[in-house]
Amino acid sequence: MCMLIHMRTRDAAATRQRILEQAQRQFAQRGFAGVTVTGVAAAAGVSPNLITRYFGGKDGLFLAATRVEIPVSISIEGDRSSLGARLAASIVTRWFDLPGEDPLLALLRAAGERPEAAEALAAFYDTNAMEPLHRYLRDTGLDDASARDRAAAIDAFVVGVLTRRRLLRSDLGDRAELEEWLGTTIQRLADG
């Protein structure tokens, strides 16, 4: 008698990615406290022990799921007179293309719950947004203090709009109108 055994091929990388995608979605929607390992595992179609194996538990999963990349340096390249339009286009694209799954939302939601999330978010903004923007403004002719102040104003404005329009789940509204308003306001802040 010939017995055929069907074995499912295991793909650790695909499983890990599936878990991360579910974790990103859930952390962005519910924050750290609202997510369970069991819930993420169920949504990913895996056993909860795989989350422990791949990520060391909920904290490790959160850290992996909230790795954020924002290509600010790409968005700021060019003439300062069109900085607002470039940044606004990049911001609006991210907001509309990552609805509810943006790891940045997970960090924002968790910042009030977990000091390490707040520190990670502050460090992320400093390194990936504030400093590149500060250098850009300085390199385009502003003195260091003015460049730093304007970068801080742009950062505060964008984080405020992000919080109001995405974190508090307010409607983003019309994409073109939002991009125009953001671009105009960012440009005013950049021009002083």
Automatic annotation (TrEMBL):
Keywords, sorted A to Z: DNA-binding, Transcription, Transcription regulation
Residue ranges of DNA binding: 36-55
Keyword DNA-binding listed: yes
GO molecular function per UniProt: DNA-binding transcription factor activity; transcription cis-regulatory region binding
Listed name of the protein: TetR family transcriptional regulator
UniProt domain HTH tetR-type: residue ranges: 13-73
Organism field: Actinoallomurus bryophytorum
